[in-house]
Specification:
alpha/beta, Rossmann fold
């Protein structure tokens, strides 16, 4: 079952609530639009995920952030504010008190911001989410370059962005709303201490930010090793999971993670 739900300032934002209420429901999963993709997600990823979760009695809510898809730009309402407004509306309409949130790229960033701001968020889905380069990143990049043939080195140098030659080129972090690394580490530790469950998956399409599995613990410290934090590095997948096999792999991983989330306190069978 799918229902249109309006929310936000003047009820001018809208999303699709998928699934039916269950007396033993896991957290409801919020799926903000990712980048300039509408609420259906890249290659209808959010639609397929919602259908899979609904078979387990888990509801999901896919919605456009202000300025994306059918959503108008709203003064004073950014992605974080829209996500929190969606949480407020769904709690008022459906009685939900626990939420999971996230998605790919900027949707992961919105999920992070909402989780930091609101204790009702009990789970985070971070696909190519926040991370920081460091020694393991530079090690992996150096190894990758060493494996290239000499003619590939010449081609790489000719086509390299300005930043590779010492200029002021941009990378993905320049288009993302991230805290500083010390602040991100502090926020990550607070989320772990609050028992927020996290699924963090990094793809091979994120090579300007993530290239080695050990980067994750370097970036976030000891809390990254919490049993409530699941990290996967899939270098064979691209950023938007274009190939059908890649999307199936991602859908299965998120589905399995969601059905294993603990039920909200007081709703255990």
């Amino acid at each position: 079952m799918e229902t249109i739900v309006r929310f936000g300032p003047g009820q001018r934002l809208a999303g699709v609530l998928t699934g039916t209420p269950s007396p033993q429901a896991r957290p409801l999963l919020l799926l903000p639009s990712a980048g300039l993709q509408p609420r259906c997600g890249p290659f209808r990823l959010h639609v397929e995920l919602g259908e899979r979760l609904a078979r387990h009695g888990i509801r999901s809510f896919r919605f456009d952030l202000p300025g994306v898809g059918e959503a108008p730009r709203l003064n004073g309402c950014d992605g974080r504010a829209a996500a929190l407004a969606a949480i407020d509306r769904l709690q008022a309409l459906e009685g939900c008190t626990h939420f999971a949130i996230g998605g790919i790229c900027s949707a992961a960033d919105v999920g992070w911001q909402a989780a930091v701001a609101d204790a009702r968020v009990s789970a985070l889905l971070l696909l190519d989410g926040i991370c920081f380069t460091g020694p393991w990143f530079h090690y992996a990049r150096a190894i990758n370059r060493m494996r290239r043939l000499p003619r590939e080195w010449r081609r790489m140098w000719r086509s390299a962005p300005d930043r590779f030659r010492g200029g002021n080129g941009l990378d993905s972090a320049d288009f993302r709303e991230w805290p500083s690394r010390p602040e991100a580490r502090r926020q990550f530790a607070q989320l772990v201490a609050r028992d927020v469950r996290m699924l963090c998956i990094y793809s091979g399409g994120y090579t300007d930010r993530f290239m080695h599995a050990r980067q994750f613990a370097w970036a976030f410290g000891a809390p990254a090793r919490s049993p409530h934090v699941a990290m996967r590095y899939w270098p064979d997948c691209d950023h938007t999971y274009f190939a059908r096999a890649q999307r199936d792999r991602l859908l299965a991983a998120v589905e399995d993670w969601m059905i294993r989330l603990p039920m909200p306190s007081g709703e255990q069978p």
